[in-house]
Design a protein that fits this description.
The complex is a heterodimer. Chain A is 14% helix and 52% strand. By secondary structure, chain A is mainly beta. Chain B is mostly beta strands. Chain B is elongated, with a radius of gyration of 20 Å. The chains are: A mainly beta, B mainly beta. Chains A and B meet through helix 1, strand 3 and strand 4 of A and helix 1, strand 14 and strand 15 of B.
């Protein structure tokens, strides 16, 4: 029975070795190289109850990105009012979303666009502040 | 000792599998296993059921992983046709369904899968006229799998290492295989390996190359036209990582891995007809960076030999 264990262990080790030999892009994850350009909303913009908040951004990076998250937070209370995340596997992508579910009171809001650089928790973030006035 | 107990349990599981209708051959690799030679051609229908559980990493801080349960069924028409005495042609026409259940959603897919065609050449065969107690046969060959199955591009589930949840892979793949059977009187062993070389799909995604291998012992019991072959064996599946973009060498290390299965099964033949049942349980595995866990494979088939 020990020979079965050794054979199993050997095959698993060979499998790991073969996977390790696969060619891959060895670009080191560098969040500082992520370029996030937010075109809407813009810093200081004011929205009213009848407005739709358009969320538009372009994200690029020298190698593969793995996804993004968008969060809109009330800066006074810390309450997250909007949160959406998507898996995207490319070196550039555009975000085009909208938000209508606005608060009942005036607020200063923070929108963060967070790009996921790898699966190890490396991210890049860009923030804009805007206002809501019912 | 644990392995021995496991093998016995597997064999008992196979016995109960007769009562249910779960069985088959699906999601990716294809092996021939032990095939009868007493008629040259056959046509058969197979059903294979495979199941997995998975963990899906969510994007964003502090978001819990979601859990999924995935099951794949393949209904396959297949057959063998001899050209001359040593060349065998095989054809496989699968119809695939998959069901993915996550915390809040269910995704179902079904449709015609990727059709494949193989040719095998008999390199060694003990002549039928031989009175030796030893019989052996060695086959080797290869084939091609065409992207005939429905494929709508690469999904998040593909990138998380699950076997393709769509009926087709969207790529042409090339297969090479070798299959050796040796029998001494009623006791025999079959060893086989099939390696699939994948190519990129139109989005430059490349599924990992795949090795399927197996070692199966069997016992041949024959009374008149009735033959039954109980089988016990080990199966080993190894898959290289996928590439999210092959030109850019974006290796997806969340995919690929290896799985060891213990297998118990039985084949029975009467006149021109044959049935097969088998059941596999993983004994050891390291798949999709630990995010995908293979649970079971069950297969059933019916042959008509001519």
């Amino acid at each position: 029975m020990n020979s079965i264990k050794y054979t199993t262990g050997l095959l698993l080790a060979v499998a790991l070795l073969l996977q390790a030999c696969q060619k891959k892009d060895n670009t080191v994850a560098t969040p500082a190289q992520v370029n996030i350009s937010i075109s809407s909303p813009v810093n200081g913009q004011t929205f009213h109850s009848s407005d739709t908040v358009l969320i538009k951004a372009d994200v690029s990076y020298p190698t593969e990105l793995h996804g993004y998250e968008i969060k809109i937070t009330d800066t006074a209370t810390g309450l997250i009012l909007f949160d959406d995340a998507q898996h995207v596997h490319n070196d550039h992508f555009s975000i085009n979303e909208q938000w209508n579910d606005k608060p009942s009171q005036a607020a200063t809001l923070k929108m963060e666009v967070i790009a996921e650089v790898d699966h190890d928790g490396n991210t890049a973030t860009k923030t804009v502040l805007f206002k809501y006035q019912p | 000792m644990k392995q021995l107990i496991c093998c016995v349990l597997l064999f008992l599981s196979a016995a109960t599998a007769k009562a249910c209708d779960a069985c088959g051959c699906s999601a990716g690799s294809q092996g021939l296993g032990i095939l009868p030679q007493f008629y040259r051609h056959f046509i058969g229908f197979q059903y294979q059921y495979r199941s997995f559980s998975s963990l899906h990493q969510e994007i964003g801080d502090n978001k819990p992983e979601t859990k999924g349960d995935e099951s794949y069924s393949t209904y396959q028409l297949w057959g063998r046709y001899y050209i001359g005495k040593r060349l065998q042609l095989y054809g496989f026409v699968p119809y695939r369904t998959s069901l993915v259940r996550e915390d809040r959603s269910t995704i179902q897919n079904s449709g015609l899968g990727d059709i494949s065609v193989w040719a095998n050449y008999i390199l060694i065969k003990t002549p039928d006229s031989s009175e030796s107690e030893w019989k052996q046969m060695l086959l080797a060959g290869g084939g091609v799998k065409a992207p005939t199955g429905h494929h709508e591009g690469i999904s998040v589930l593909d990138r998380e290492g699950l076997p393709n949840v769509q009926p087709g892979t969207g790529s042409w793949d090339f297969i090479t295989d070798i299959n050796y059977t040796v029998r001494h009187n009623a006791i025999g062993v079959n060893a086989e390996a099939a390696y699939t070389f994948t190519t990129v799909d139109k989005e430059d995604y490349k599924y990992g190359n795949k090795l399927l291998s197996g070692l199966t012992g069997f016992y041949w019991l024959q009374t008149g036209k009735f033959a039954i072959l109980p089988q016990l064996g080990l199966r080993y599946e190894f898959t290289l990582h996928d590439y999210d973009n092959y030109s850019r060498k974006w290796l997806n290390e969340q995919t690929g891995g290896s799985i060891f299965y213990g297998m118990a099964g039985v084949q029975a033949y009467y006149s021109h007809w044959g049935v097969q049942l088998s059941y596999q349980l993983p004994l050891a595995q390291n798949y999709a960076a630990g995010n995908v866990t293979a649970k079971q494979v069950a297969t059933a088939g019916l042959f008509f030999l001519f």
